[in-house]
């Protein structure tokens, strides 16, 4: 990871992009995760939102299938950004899971392990276009 701009506030947890990124910058955090601006080779800027699966499941602990809920939202984002796209929705590129349970969706979707005291070990990442120009409150 050459010349990575490590944020004093937060460092991303993704592993798969580390070899191909040029730099990253912490943009902000919200209820569902943390977003980073990532610079890839050829000066391409993207946004990567990271969501801690365990924290997400804690927020939606009364849902029967909490991970299916967020994957449904990703599917909607993908459909809205497909084809000609929508000028009011960020273009969706991809999503992926990382962590020891990343290959076991049933275990990730289980609501049995949503304790807030447990370690943050599984991550969902959503890669979208980077929209330069402030936040939604402006």
Automatic annotation (TrEMBL):
GO terms for molecular function: ATP binding; protein kinase activity. It comes from Folsomia candida (Springtail). PANTHER family: EUKARYOTIC TRANSLATION INITIATION FACTOR 2-ALPHA KINASE EIF2-ALPHA KINASE -RELATED (PTHR11042). InterPro entries: CC_SR_Kinase, Kinase-like_dom_sf, Prot_kinase_dom, Protein_kinase_ATP_BS. Residues 21-138 form the Protein kinase domain. ATP binds at residue 49. It comes from the Eukaryota. Keywords: ATP-binding, Kinase, Nucleotide-binding, Transferase. This is Serine/threonine-protein kinase 3. GO terms for cellular component: cytoplasm; nucleus.
